[in-house]
Recover the amino acids of this structure.
């Protein structure tokens, strides 16, 4: 299926003016209602339910509001090109929006709709000029069709793995530190003997175990990735502390892995949403048996999306 086949000229709006993102959501709900049998209230409710979970801004001035509506047999795609870049404050952060692709479908079509999101992201990242140069809805559909964007052709989590580091739960914390330093990571998945994930451990956990009275955050440790000398100054004392404490194991200080895990077949649009929602720099990729395959880094996601 080509992305262009999902575009409806009745749902393409070029150079429209909005003063807020809330106005955009209201406009999307109203226009989808006009073109379908859905009520504007139903559409807006489905979109806001997703917005309340986490941001749907993906950078590159792209917003992807979307939601599920029960018993909907199709995927509805609405596109807006704003007449100017709109500054939006979202979750205490500022972002900019120029393009809006809104998608409404049913939960039964969840996998297909994630593929649609991925194709749209590729279009905006690689060919935003198409969106800027279109003069009419028909012109936009024609030029998108020429790009031959196939909805099924998406990057998967398994394509985005940057390294395959992990720590066995019965290995010592010293070994965890060594592996973090070797892979230049501040985070490791903890696994059983068969590589099934059972938790995660990061430098915050390690420092908290050594210095339980200190208040340490992941943010205060982020400089370890960039300052090699400082990293050694901080990590070496911890390593020395644990060198003779082999009975202190990774499994003793690990925390829940639930929100850090994505399946190997997850699309990169899912990965971006999870990373944005939880502010994670890394995610763990697992197979259907929950065995760790590797780790995804935010930077690699962005770079590989651009090359896709």
């Amino acid at each position: 299926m080509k992305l262009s086949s999902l575009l409806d000229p009745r749902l393409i709006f070029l150079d429209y003016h909005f003063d807020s993102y809330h106005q955009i959501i209201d406009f999307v709900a109203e226009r989808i209602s006009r073109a379908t049998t859905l009520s504007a209230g139903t559409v807006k409710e489905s979109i806001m339910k997703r917005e309340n979970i986490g941001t749907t801004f993906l950078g590159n001035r792209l917003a992807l509001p979307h939601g599920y509506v029960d018993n909907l047999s199709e995927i509805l795609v609405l596109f807006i090109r704003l007449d100017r870049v709109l500054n939006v404050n979202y979750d205490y952060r500022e972002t900019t929006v120029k393009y809006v692709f809104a998608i409404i479908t049913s939960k039964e079509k969840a996998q297909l709709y994630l593929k649609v999101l991925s194709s749209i992201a590729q279009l905006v990242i690689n060919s935003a000029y198409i969106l800027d140069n279109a003069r009419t809805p028909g012109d936009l559909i024609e030029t998108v069709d020429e790009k031959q964007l196939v909805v099924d052709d998406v990057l998967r989590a398994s394509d985005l793995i940057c390294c395959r580091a992990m720590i066995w739960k019965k290995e010592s914390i010293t070994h965890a530190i060594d592996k973090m330093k070797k892979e230049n990571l501040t985070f490791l998945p903890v696994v059983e003997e068969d590589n099934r994930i059972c938790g995660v451990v990061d430098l915050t956990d390690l420092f908290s175990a050594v210095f339980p009275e200190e208040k340490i955050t992941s943010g205060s440790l982020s400089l370890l990735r960039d300052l090699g000398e400082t990293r050694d100054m901080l990590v070496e004392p911890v390593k020395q502390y644990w060198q003779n404490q082999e009975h202190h194991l990774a499994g003793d200080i690990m925390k829940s892995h639930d929100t850090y895990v994505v399946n190997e077949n997850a699309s990169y649009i899912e990965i971006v949403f999870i990373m944005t929602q939880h502010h994670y720099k890394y995610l763990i990729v697992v197979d259907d048996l929950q065995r760790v395959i590797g780790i995804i880094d935010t930077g690699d996601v962005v770079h590989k999306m651009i090359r896709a």
Q: What stands out?
A: Confidence is low (pLDDT under 50) at residues 223-231. The first strand starts at residue 7 and ends at 16. DSSP finds eleven helices and twelve strands in the chain.
